[in-house]
Amino acid sequence: MGTGEWTTRDRAKAIAYRDYQKSVCSQCGTRAEDWDQGGNDDTEDAYVAVTHRCIGCQVIADKQDSVREGSSSHGVKVLLIPAAVHAATQALKQLEKHGNRHDD
């Protein structure tokens, strides 16, 4: 187990990783070196663009559209939570609304 202090090697690794991260596109995650630069060889590009539909992203986009159509949408964030968590939250709100009455 170490002392928690960074060694020269640790710092070199961290700097190398930082430099690598700077070379990665923040949108697509590739680097310029990953792509065929149009040289004389017949090398292929390292990636192929494909489509993929994420149902979660689709549901979020649909909800965002409905929020925009309604009242003020400034500051409104749309997120996914598990259905069971949502149901429990709604049940708790109903209990609080009706005063937590117990019929003992």
Question: Keywords for this structure?
Answer:
mainly alpha, 3 helices, flat
The counted number of beta strands is 0
* Model regions low in confidence, pLDDT < 50 over at least 5 residues: none
- Mean of the pLDDT scores? 86
Could you say which overall geometry the principal axes of the C-alpha atoms support?
A: flat
The H/E string reads HHH
Describe the structure.
The protein is mostly helical. It has a domain at 55-97. It has 3 helices and no strands. The longest helix has 15 residues, at 8-22. The mean pLDDT is 86.
Summarize this entry quickly:
The chain is mostly helical and 104 residues long. The protein has a domain at 55-97. The chain has helices at residues 8-22, 55-69, 83-97.
Task: List the topology elements.
Elements: H1 8-22, H2 55-69, H3 83-97
